[in-house]
C-alpha cells in the first residue's frame, strides 16, 4: 500500500471538530496524529484495499471506503479512544440490517468497525423536508425493538444524568448567563421526564436525524452512526424536531413551525407530544450550551434560541 499514506490523512472537518471539543486532550491528539498509521495497520490486518477517505467525512470518526479480499465494497470506520465503538457494534448487530447499516467486523479496542458500503453522499437531507420526515419516521420505527436480555446499553436516565450534570456546571459560567432561563427549564423537564417512564424501554439510535439516514442498495434508507441507549421513543425524535434548523429559524413563524413538527411527529409515531417537546428542549439546550463551551457562539445561540421557542 505504498503511496497511500497521504490519501489517508484525516479530513479537516474531523480535526477541526475534535479540536473544538472541550474534552479534547492528549489522548485524542495522539490518536489524530497517529491516525494514518493506525489506518494502515487496520487495513493490513483485515486485508482491505483502500479506495479513498470519505469527504467531508464524519465529525467524530474517519471513514475509509475500502474493498474486502473478495472485492466486496465496504466502509472502514475508525473512532478516537473513549468512544462507543463496542456499543455501536452491539446495536448494529442486534438490528442485523433491519433499518440500519449491517456490521461486518469489529475491533472495539482499536475503535475500528467495518460496515457494509452505503451511499455516503446521499442522506435524507437530499429530499424535500416533508418526504424526508416521512422516510425518517418509517425508518426509525424499525429500530425500536426490545434490547436483548443483559444488554450493555445505558438507559436514557443514566445518559441524561451525565448531560444534566455537565449542563448545570456550564450554566453557572458567566458566558452562559443569557441562557439561564432556558437551561433551568431544561433541567426541570429532564427531572420530570425521568421520574416516570410511560412505556417499556426499546433500543434507541440516540443520535437520529435526517443526516444519519443514508441511501443503500438492499434498502432505500438505512441508519448509521448510532450512540445507542435504552429508553422511551420520544427521546429518539428530538433531533428530527430540530432538523434543518438554519432554514427553520430563518423562516417567518419559526415557533409555530416548531410546534407543528412536534405535533406531527408525535401523532405519526404515537408518542406523547409533551414528552417529545420536553426531550427536544432538554437536548437542544444542552447542545446549545455545549456549543458555547466549545467556542461556537453562533451555533450555540441558534440552538438556544430554538430551545426557547419550545
Summarize the structure.
Keywords: Kinase, Transferase. Helices cover 49% and strands 14% of the residues.
What are the SSEs and their pairings?
Blueprint: H1 12-20, H2 26-45, E1 49-53, E2 62-67, E3 73-78, H3 85-95, E4 103-107, E5 112-116, E6 119-123, H4 129-143, H5 156-171, H6 180-195, E7 202-204, E8 213-215, E9 221-223, E10 229-231, H7 233-236, H8 238-242, H9 245-250, H10 254-269, H11 273-293, H12 297-309
Antiparallel strand pairs: 1-2, 2-3, 3-5, 4-5, 6-8, 7-10, 8-9
Helix pairs in contact: 5-6, 5-11, 6-11, 11-12
Account of the protein in words:
By secondary structure, this protein is of the alpha+beta class. It folds into two domains: 113 residues, 2-Layer Sandwich (Phosphorylase Kinase, domain 1); 187 residues, Aminoglycoside 3'-phosphotransferase, Chain: A, domain 2 (Alpha-Beta Complex). Helices cover 49% and strands 14% of the residues. It contains twelve helices and ten strands. A hairpin with a 5-residue loop joins β8 and β9. The chain is globular, with a radius of gyration of 20 Å. The protein starts with 11 loop residues before the first helix and ends with a helix. Keywords: Kinase, Transferase. This is Kinase. One of its GO terms (molecular function) is phosphotransferase activity, alcohol group as acceptor. Pfam families: APH_6_hur.
Give the uncertain stretches in residue-range form: none
Mean pLDDT: 92
Structural class: alpha+beta
Overall tally of structural domains: 2
Q: What strand line-up does the widest sheet have? A: 1-2-3-5-4
Identify the CATH homologous superfamily of the largest domain.
Aminoglycoside phosphotransferase (APH), C-terminal lobe
Radius of gyration: 20 Å
Number of strands: 10
Amino acid at each position: 500500500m505504498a503511496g497511500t499514506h497521504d490519501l489517508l490523512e484525516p479530513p479537516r472537518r474531523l480535526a477541526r471538530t475534535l479540536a473544538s471539543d472541550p474534552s479534547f486532550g492528549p489522548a485524542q491528539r495522539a490518536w489524530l496524529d497517529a491516525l494514518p498509521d493506525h489506518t494502515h495497520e487496520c487495513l493490513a490486518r483485515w486485508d482491505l484495499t483502500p479506495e479513498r477517505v470519505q469527504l467531508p467525512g464524519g465529525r467524530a470518526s474517519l471513514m475509509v471506503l475500502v474493498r474486502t479480499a473478495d472485492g466486496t465494497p465496504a466502509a472502514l470506520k475508525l473512532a478516537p479512544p473513549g468512544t462507543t465503538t463496542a456499543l455501536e457494534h452491539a446495536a448494529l448487530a442486534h438490528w442485523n440490517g433491519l433499518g440500519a447499516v449491517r456490521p461486518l467486523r469489529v475491533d472495539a479496542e482499536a475503535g475500528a468497525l467495518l460496515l457494509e458500503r452505503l451511499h455516503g453522499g446521499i442522506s435524507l437531507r437530499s429530499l424535500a423536508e416533508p418526504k424526508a420526515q416521512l422516510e425518517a419516521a418509517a425508518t426509525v420505527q424499525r429500530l425500536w425493538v426490545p434490547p436483548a436480555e443483559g444488554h450493555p446499553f445505558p438507559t436514557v436516565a443514566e445518559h441524561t444524568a451525565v448531560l444534566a450534570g455537565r449542563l448545570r456546571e456550564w450554566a453557572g459560567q458567566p458566558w452562559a448567563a443569557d441562557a439561564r432561563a432556558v437551561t433551568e427549564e431544561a433541567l426541570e423537564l429532564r427531572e420530570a421526564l425521568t421520574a416516570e417512564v410511560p412505556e417499556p424501554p426499546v433500543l434507541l439510535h440516540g443520535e437520529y436525524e435526517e443526516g444519519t439516514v443514508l441511501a443503500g442498495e438492499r434498502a432505500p434508507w438505512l441508519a448509521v452512526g448510532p450512540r445507542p441507549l435504552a429508553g422511551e421513543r420520544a427521546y429518539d425524535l428530538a433531533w428530527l424536531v430540530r432538523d434543518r434548523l438554519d432554514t427553520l429559524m430563518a423562516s417567518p413563524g419559526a415557533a409555530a413551525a416548531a410546534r407543528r413538527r412536534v405535533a406531527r411527529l408525535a401523532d405519526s409515531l404515537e408518542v406523547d407530544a409533551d414528552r417529545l417537546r420536553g426531550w427536544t428542549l432538554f437536548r437542544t439546550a444542552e447542545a446549545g450550551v455545549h456549543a458555547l463551551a466549545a467556542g461556537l457562539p453562533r451555533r450555540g445561540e441558534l440552538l438556544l434560541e430554538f430551545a426557547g421557542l419550545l
